[in-house]
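INTERNAL AUDIT FORM
Audit reference: QA-55
Scope: verify that the stored structure record matches its stored sequence.
Auditor: D.O.
Record contents follow.
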Amino acid sequence: MPFCYLDRDGVINHHLPYVGSIERFIWFDEIINVAEELKKYGYNFIMVTNQSGIGRGYYTIEDFNKLNNVIIERFKKRKLDIKIRFCPHTPSFNCDCRKPKIGMIKNDERSPKVIFIGDQESDMICAFNAGVKNRWLINSYLKSDYMTRYARNHDELKNNLKMWYEKDILRI
């Protein structure tokens, strides 16, 4: 089964600075619909997220894990499983796991059907450097030389999903 990597802030939830609690976590409900559609094509889901708020002391790993449990349960209610990987380090730590480096995804089996959905340049560079062929960017103001598909918002992604899949992946 192929993977669909999902960034968190900007893809699963609205991108606010240092979201470490459910009170600041605002869902993009459309991403659940996108995941349901991709599940029909056999995809497994892995959230990959930089969380420097942990390294900066804005929230703890325990706080982050409480929020992860909410995400997992929300997906589970729709019969979707999601694994969660994260980098807790600040950029100055210069670790291998912080996107745009590929540490969070480098050991996964790579197939031409893998998809990475992100909202930042660092997501697209990470996916490109890891050999992910399908790099879908959701962002109303940013485009990337590393993306393969672009949506200004989640509704546009949801509306184009089937066409993108059929054109880019189905024939593989």
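Auditor finding: record pair retrieved intact. Residues 3-168 form a domain with the Rossmann fold fold (CATH 3.40.50.1000).
Action required: none
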